[in-house]
Records
---
Amino acid sequence: MKKLLILILVSFSSLTELFEEHYEEAEKIMKNMTIEQKIGQLFFPRFNNKTKEKDIKEKFPGGFVLFAIDFNEQEDIVINNMDYIQKLSNDILGLPLGLSVDEEGGTVNRISLYHRESPFPSPQEIYDEHGIDGILTIDKEKRDLLRKFKMNINLAPVADISYNSSDYIYDRTLGRLPEETADYIEADVNGYVNDNFSCCNKHFPGYGNNTNTHTGIAIDPRPYETFLHEDFLTFKAGIEQKIPMILVSHNIVLCKDKKHPASISETWHDILRNELGFSGLILTDDLSMDAIKEYTDNYSPAIIAVNAGNDILLTSDYYEHLQAVIDAVKNGTIPEDKIFKACRRIIAWKIHYLGARAKDEGTDEGSSTDSTHTEQKDDDDDGDNNTTLIIILCVVGVIVLSVIVFVLLKFVFCKKAKVTSGLTEVVENSDKFLQSQ
């Protein structure tokens, strides 16, 4: 009975994709976009302050990835710069930018290097001293700092499992066994999602004890059972908490694809979508890394990445990769439907997290606002709509479960009644038999 109810609940909750409630509005926005603008939304290039105007006006990126060097300025200069590019994106395309950083803590910090008394410590350090509660407290401080500088995505927390201090990825992980790491990811992602701030688990399918893919290829020989029983636990924990983004590594994981890095492997993307049930945004690691360049069959890695199933492409070779995808769509190498689905998912995420709106739904076409902070009315409307949807889903769920319980109980009672009736008949027949003797 319990297993049946769990199966029903899982099936019921998996009927919709993560941002599907916003697809209709996303499609309204997309109707006024050219194919070049839709393709542009798939790219989150490395931010370049010198080319930012050209990038936004001519290339229409979905967002940017910022590094520590971009914050090595006075606070007001950085903030004004981010406000400027958000306004520019809204003026040009009517869509906000996704502004992302890797503020992991420990060895990987961007903003806190320059704008905090000391950089954020690693989750491992915090956990050793204060447990999960300590991490949740620090990550709330991270989100506040990122918001102050107009960021709306933290490319963290790291969901990789490593408990060997000699591993390349060890210092960036919790440094604990799978179950403990999964508990940490579950709690931390829940904190981000409830605070309406986008986070990203990485590096799917799990980094393991592999080498640095920024400088060379990493070959992962581990059997699939290891991923099932260890690495996937943390990613499932994030997915169950509705994490909006998962980043895929450049490791070649032999158990499922001996030819392609996971970031451009259709097989690994199918596993993430269909076996783990993730329906949010899939990101590549930087497509300009040395690890990927020799494994793309003479195609641009951006083309392979789109066809593999990625929604967002991170790259330091923006113009080259963008043009390659545009050309591939025009000559049929990339089906236009792939661009449509990825772009729709990205815009739906922007509606959900960044407050994007179609112009025909009450927004003033002649004005633009800082999209990272939507008007209070829009926030209230979102809250009301979400509350209504939750209530409807709960009511439907209760009705479905009630019907199932009623049918099961009726079945049980009917069986009992039949047994009782059968016993009564046997007793009566026995009495008749004895009386006749």
---
Amino acid sequence: MSQRPLRFLCVVIATALGSTSLLLPAAEALSTSATQSIQGQRYKIAVCDWMILKRQRLGAFQFTKDIGADGVEVDMGSLGERETFDNQLAKPEVREQFLTAARELKLEICSLAMSGFYAQSFAERPTVPRMIQNTIDTMKLMNVKMAFLPLGVRGDLVKHPELRSAIVERLKAAGKQAEAAGVIIGIETALDAAGEVKLLDEIGSPAIKIYFNFANALQNGRDLHAELRTLGKDRICQIHASNQDGVWLQDDPKIDLPKVKQTLDDMGWSGWLVIERSRKASDSRNVKGNFGANTAYLKKVFQAR
């Protein structure tokens, strides 16, 4: 039997039985196929599905293919006051559609994002362990090794240092969950790089790393290159490679991407550069134009041969 009918049969059986483990071969096939499609690239370029207005929507993959990026950071779904994310990927038939779309378009799902915590409190929500486990379970089923966790405005450790102990304890617990599953959770904080090193040391888990954001350094007047070097290659799992909205990356006077590449090269870092913002103010609603331009420039700088 060919692979396609076999995968289809697995989906039918898994859906009928309510089982998810039967879908793992499809996830493994996705990983192999997509990796081969961009093999040899030290740096790979992705977009956030919620920022291209396609949160957990299949259309994110064709959009990504159209603009020439290598992958998608897929969101876990909205949170609001729910006990956990509105995660449609928990449904086997939906999950298989996403895996199939990525495989057929030769794209990768570089990470799953818990973007709901941009506005919700990681320190105070009572069902955080369930949310973390839901994310990890989805990662395993989709063969995704990286998750993005922003501590957000209500977990800002500069403005709310009183939350530090609660956040550290929850991240220690999340680290144990991630370690058991063999995945990484990348956190975005408001701290400077030295502060993030201390935070990681306090958490003490190899499964908790920093998801670096160029904009956090630039908007707070920090030396982007010094921040990267302070963290070092082993503490940075992925990078949101954009600045605040206003101009495209190629026109941004605050960031010298060829120099950033040299810094990352010197550090020995490699991985995913995920575009979040840097939309042109005069044409902010032109999603394809903004993300297409930033993708093209990142590829020109980081993937030139």
---
Amino acid sequence: MERISTGWMAACVLGCSLLGCSSLQNPVDLQWVESDQPDYRNSDLWLSLPSRDDASDAIPKRLPEGVAQLSHDSLEVDVFFVHPTMYFRGQHWNAQLDNVRINRATESSPMRLQASAFNIGGRLYAPRYRQAHIGVFTWQDNTSWRALELAYEDVRRSFIHYLENWNNGRGIILAGHSQGSWHVRWLLQEFFDGTALQEQLVVAYGPGFDWYKTDFEQLSFCENAEETGCVCSWMSYGAGFFPAWLGASEATPMCTHPVTWQLEGGNSISDHQGVVLSQMRYAFPSSIEAQIERGILQIEQPQVPFGKILQRNNWHIGDINLFWINIRQNARIRSENFDEMGNIND
């Protein structure tokens, strides 16, 4: 349980930064209600399917030439994306799947702004699931753990449906953010680590949560930009700020630099390829410089107008958007390498 608690403390920092600790809902206000298990044969329970236009198909305005257009199905690779927490206040421990407000927010924010980074020319799948209330990462009681297990059970069922109906032996990229990365780690542990399916893993991206070397028995963390069959994770903070949870355990998180794709050091600012803003607009290439320290990503003041005002202690909200193009290009490179290795093996 010590390993779990460390991660929960990290998410507590996130919850406080997004909501303000004083506004966090009291757990006694929540009811435990288990709605019917989702039937993932229903296409309405998928936020993204390759057979239709979804929020994840959005393309940022003003993208550089050659980045925007990626031919659909040009790679024999699937992406399975698990969205982050969008449930901050409500009546239940887990969000209901028919909650219109949460569904709209999930589509307009993480699916449009984050999942789109992984729309690299393969096929992208993303399930709706009964996500746990943001407070579970702060309260850390038995019911909180139960809420996370319920959320994961949905993600697990959707992934099994995907495997049995759509994968057909294609390479798989797992990606998520925050609570989504929590569930991605469980998928890796249950379905990939030391199993036959590990051979189909292109790469896994789990930003926004602390992952450790001891999380996996055979899976390893990526050490460069071209490696396949490995995992990546990072948590973003302002330079000089180290969250309190970081010293609560002797274990140091693994941190992959989302520009260099190495496990230590920093990046040249010229290698930063730009950010995607909340208006779904590309901007500010060569503006972010960061280095890995104590297992987290330390982001220097952005080199943009009013960068000093924009700088913050917790950059969790920008884990993907600050590096949107670097991530997109990297996922494409690893997928192409995986395809080439598959052709050689064939």
